[in-house]
Structures are given as structure tokens and as C-alpha cells.
Amino acid sequence: MTDSIEFYCSSPSLKECPKPEIPEFAFIGRSNVGKSSLINLLANRKGLAKTSGTPGKTRLINFFMVNPPALSPASPQQKEPSLQYSWFLVDLPGYGFAKISKEQRSAFEGIIRNYLEKRETLAMTFVLVDSRLEPQKSDIGFINWLGEHEIPFVLLFTKTDKLTKQELSVRLQSYKKTLSGFWDELPNIIPVSAVTRSGRDVVLKTIENILKEIRLG
């Protein structure tokens, strides 16, 4: 699924994003949730997405091209069709407690909303939440906003290596209980860890299945 991946571009706004021609899978979460580490895990490459100890460093929409067109099923180099279709992994600015001004935060939130609401090639949004924490107001608010705008998403529980199986189970149940107060049908939740690499295959399989549906549709 990520045999070939490379940085494509950074865009300060929806208007300056690449032409909407291939499926996009966006990743977003509160500052310091481990988004860059997860992207590097999915890409199986250290340093692709820059990690930092300073929350809120991602302030642009960053596009990573997965399986560039030269390796797509249309390539004459390939004897048979393949599931290795081209797609963009999109790293969105975080939200939450980034140490920035209210004006800057409002601008970034506007960029995020514009992209999520209007990007026609957005196939799925992966929302990262820290598995070690009780449900956070900013996370729940963002999740409910996605639901109100009918934007498909999957929840990724990050940093699960910091918890025992029992602790993780308790956190999952707590989150599901909180969400059940707003949702009739709970969103899909995938526990992941950039340290143990758990959940990587499940996330990539989820993307693969969506790409299949797009091709068949």
C-alpha cells in the first residue's frame, strides 16, 4: 500500500491544494497526539513527516503522494492490474492547545474546515485521539462537527503502547460511552502505536478497501 511515498507539496489554503484528481486520506488530531509518528509508521519511513516536541508545528496542509502515477495500474510496466493505486496522504494542521494566538488558531481552523467540507477528492478522514486521556472536549466537539457535516471519519487511538490491555479496554469503553450520548451508531475505532507498530495493517487495509470501492464505483 505504501511501497512508494514521497512528499508532494504544502498548501496554505484549499485554493492552493493540488488539483483534485486522486483519492485523499487526511490525518488530523490535537497537537502532540503523535500524528507525525503515525504517518511515518504508515509510510514505513523515519523522518518523512517531521516530529517535534513543540505542539502545533504543522501549519500547512501537507500532501504526500503514495504510489505515484508511474507505478499505477495504467503503467505499461505492469503486466496485470494492481491495488497499488495513487493516492494522497494528507497531514492536516492540529487543533487544541497549540501555543499560538487566537487569530492564528482561527485562521488554521478555517483552513481545516474549508478542506474537510469542500475537498471533493477527500475519501476518508482519520481523527487521532490520545488513548491515555479521558475524552477531551476539543476532540468530542471536532468529532461531532464531522458528523454534523456528514464527513466520513475513523478514530485512531494513539500511543496505546503506554497502556496495558486492561487500561486500553477501559479507555475505549469510556470513549464509546461518551460518544453514545451523541451518536446512534458509533464510529469505527482503531487502536494504533507507532512504537509497537500495532494497528498499521488495519489502517492500511481500511484505505485499501475504500480505494477498491472507489475503483468499482
Task: Give an overview in words.
The chain starts with a strand and ends with a helix. The longest helix is centred in the middle third of the chain and has 17 residues, at 102-118. The chain is built from 5 helices and 7 strands. It has 217 residues and is α/β, with parallel strands linked by helices. The protein has a 7-stranded mixed β-sheet, sandwiched between helices. Helix content is 33%, strand content 19%.
CATH domain fold name: Rossmann fold
> How large is the radius of gyration?
17 Å
Q: Please give the order of strands in the largest beta sheet.
A: 1-3-4-2-5-6-7
- Average pLDDT value? 86
Order of helices and strands: EEHEEHEHEHEH
User: What is the H level of CATH, i.e. the homologous superfamily?
Assistant: P-loop containing nucleotide triphosphate hydrolases
Q: Which class of secondary structure composition applies to the elements?
A: alpha/beta
Count of strand segments: 7
Query: What's the number of domains?
Result: 1
| Global morphology | globular
* End-to-end gap: 20 Å
- Percent helix: 25-40%
Please, how many helices?
5
Summarize the structure.
This protein is α/β, with parallel strands linked by helices and 217 residues long. Helix 4 links the parallel strand 6 (153-158) and strand 7. 33% of the residues lie in helices and 19% in strands.
